[in-house]
Q: What sequence folds into this?
C-alpha cells in the first residue's frame, strides 16, 4: 500500500503540470489565439487556415507535459509558436501589439520558460536517488553566493537583450521612421528580416558569451558526462551524421523552391 | 585516396557556400528578400555539409 509520504511526493508533479500547463496556455493565448481571433473579427483574415493552424502548438504542450520532455516543452512548443507568429505576421501581428502588450506577452513567455524549467528540474530531482537520502546543507559560502549572483545577472540579461533587440526593431519610433524612409513599400518585409537576423545574432551571442562560461562551471554533472560520451562517439564515427542528410535534403528542397519561384514569379 | 576525396569535397563545398552568400547579397541589393533569405539558408546548408566532409577527412587521417 502506498504511504502518505510517497503520495505527498507526487503532489509537486500534479501541481507542476497544472502550473506549467497554465503558463503554456497563457503564452499560446497571448501570442496566437487573441491576435488571430482579433484579425478574424476585423475581417483581416483572407483564409481560414490560420484558425486551423493555431491549434498546432497545443498537442506539443500537452505531449510535453505528459512525457516530461525538455525537447517538447522548452524547444518545440516555443518554436512552433514563433514559426506561426512569423507566418501570420501580416494578418495577426501588425498593429495589434503595442509596447505594453508586447511586454506582457514577453513576460508570459519568460514565465512559461522559467516555470517549465523549474518543473522539469523538480521532476528530475524526484527521480534522483540522492533525493531519498538528502542531508542538511551548510549555509552557502561567499564564493557560491557570488556565483549565484552572477548566474542571476546572466539569466536577467539573457532575457533582457533579445527583448531590447525586438523592441528596437518593432516598436521604436525612430527605427520605424528609418525603415519607412529607406525601404518604403518593403519596410514591413525588412522589419521581419531584421527580427530574424536579430534573433540569429542573439542565439550566437548566447551560445558564445553566456553558455560557454556557464558550461565551465558544471562539474560532476551526469548530463555533461553523457554529452562528452556522445561527442566522443560522434567524433569516432566514420559515417555522416543524421543531420548531414537532413541538411542535404533541406538544401535541395530550398534550391527547388527557388527554381519554382523563379519560374512562377520571374 | 578516400581522405583526399573528402578533403577536396570539403574545400569545394566550403568554397561553393561563398558563391551562395555572394548571390544572397546580390539578391538583397535587388530587394528580392525572400530569394536572398533562401540563398542564405542554402549557403549555410552547403557550409554545414562541407564541415561534415572535413570531419570525415580528419577521421580517415587518424
A:
Amino acid at each position: 500500500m502506498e504511504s502518505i509520504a510517497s503520495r505527498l511526493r507526487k503532489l509537486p508533479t500534479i501541481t507542476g503540470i497544472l502550473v506549467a500547463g497554465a503558463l503554456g496556455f497563457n503564452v499560446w493565448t497571448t501570442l496566437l489565439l487573441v491576435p488571430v481571433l482579433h484579425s478574424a473579427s476585423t475581417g483581416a483574415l483572407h483564409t481560414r487556415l490560420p484558425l486551423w493552424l493555431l491549434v498546432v502548438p497545443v498537442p506539443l504542450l500537452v505531449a510535453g507535459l505528459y512525457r516530461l520532455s525538455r525537447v517538447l516543452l522548452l524547444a518545440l512548443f516555443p518554436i512552433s509558436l514563433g514559426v506561426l507568429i512569423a507566418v501570420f505576421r501580416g494578418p495577426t501581428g501588425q498593429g495589434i501589439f503595442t509596447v505594453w502588450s508586447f511586454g506582457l506577452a514577453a513576460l508570459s513567455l519568460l514565465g512559461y520558460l522559467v516555470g517549465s524549467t523549474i518543473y522539469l528540474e523538480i521532476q528530475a530531482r524526484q527521480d534522483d536517488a540522492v533525493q531519498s537520502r538528502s542531508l542538511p546543507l551548510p549555509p552557502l559560502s561567499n564564493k557560491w553566493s557570488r556565483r549565484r549572483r552572477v548566474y542571476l545577472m546572466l539569466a536577467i540579461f539573457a532575457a533582457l537583450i533579445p527583448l531590447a533587440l525586438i523592441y528596437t526593431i518593432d516598436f521604436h519610433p525612430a527605427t520605424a521612421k528609418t525603415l519607412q524612409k529607406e525601404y518604403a513599400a518593403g519596410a514591413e518585409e525588412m522589419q521581419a528580416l531584421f527580427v530574424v537576423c536579430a534573433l540569429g545574432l542573439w542565439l550566437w551571442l548566447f551560445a558564445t558569451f553566456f553558455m560557454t562560461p556557464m558550461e565551465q562551471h558544471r562539474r560532476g554533472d551526469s548530463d555533461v558526462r553523457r554529452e562528452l560520451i556522445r561527442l566522443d562517439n560522434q567524433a569516432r564515427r566514420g559515417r555522416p551524421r543524421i543531420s548531414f542528410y537532413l541538411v542535404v535534403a533541406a538544401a535541395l528542397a530550398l534550391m527547388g523552391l527557388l527554381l519554382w519561384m523563379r519560374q512562377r514569379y520571374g | 585516396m578516400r581522405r583526399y576525396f573528402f578533403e577536396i569535397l570539403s574545400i569545394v563545398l566550403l568554397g561553393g557556400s561563398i558563391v551562395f552568400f555572394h548571390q544572397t547579397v546580390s539578391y538583397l541589393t535587388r530587394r528580392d528578400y525572400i530569394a536572398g533569405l533562401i540563398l542564405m539558408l542554402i549557403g549555410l546548408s552547403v557550409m554545414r555539409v562541407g564541415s561534415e566532409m572535413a570531419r570525415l577527412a580528419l577521421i580517415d587521417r587518424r
User: Anything to note?
Assistant: Chain A touches chain B through 24 residues (CB under 8 Å).
